[in-house]
Amino acid sequence: MFCFTRLPQELIDSILDFLIDDSQSLKASSLVCRSFLRRTRVHLFRRLHFDNFRHFHKFRNMCQASPHIPPRVETLALHSGWDDRKMRGTKHFVAVMSLFSQLRTIKFIHINWSLLSQDVRAALSSHAFQCISFHCVTGINASDLFSLVSGSRASLHTLELHHTDVAGSLEQGEQSALYVTNLTLHDSALSPEVFWNDTSFLAPRHVHTLDVLLHNMTDIHRLQDLLSGGLCPLQHLVVSHMPRSTNL
Questions:
Q1: Which InterPro entries does this entry report, sorted A to Z (predicted)?
Q2: 231 plus 114 within the same structural domain
């Protein structure tokens, strides 16, 4: 322990910075000595993942005891269980969301969007996200998406749809289509109709990086239609192939 206390704090911080993506090592390091604690907390609370409201309620209690934690959160992942049966006392969720002053990325995983309360939706839409990611999200339509990004239109640059289809199209009177430079479509609607309708929720000519997952020849033809229809010029195209059967 004596050797750690003699090290300059700047050197300790630099060493711990190498563990930024290794949460288990960061947790272990935070228990070594007090000089490690501040830097490990910075990285440990940079990304948060909540599986249900019970975990979020515990975090709220932690924030009350340590108000310096919420401003460190940059990425928030909300997993299954976020529905109207488990979102008891949404005022706590709303209050804590307002403390995330540096929140830039949000991920929704296995969530039924139609079951989220209006208070929760309003709290989410109050942030200026740079990246929004959907994984196996159901019950979401174009109007829901536009409501979510209402505070992010100037900042949002990345949209990821994994096993998620955004139903419907823009209604008359809604704002113009989203401008995102990075778009990921994995097992989601890879269809020209998503982009080329007058009521499309995406503006294709602003996409610089497209990441797609192809399963069969139909997906390949759809990608060809997209590329020939005005999605070019792309700066980066990432194509992955995962056949559903032995025949492409």
A1: F-box-like_dom_sf
A2: yes
Query: 10-residue block means of pLDDT along the chain (248 residues)?
Result: 63 70 71 71 79 76 84 89 60 84 94 89 94 94 88 91 80 65 83 58 80 85 77 82 61
Gap between the Cα atoms of 194 and 188, Å rounded: 10
Neighbour tally for 192: CB within 10 Å: 19
pTM assigned to the model: 0.81
- Same domain for 8 and 73, yes or no, is no
- 165: nearest Cα among 142, 197, 199: 142
Closest by Cα among 92, 94, 93, 38 to 68: 38
Q: Structurally, how many domains does the chain consist of?
A: 2
In this structure, are 68 and 5 located in the same domain?
A: no
61 and 23 co-located in one domain: no
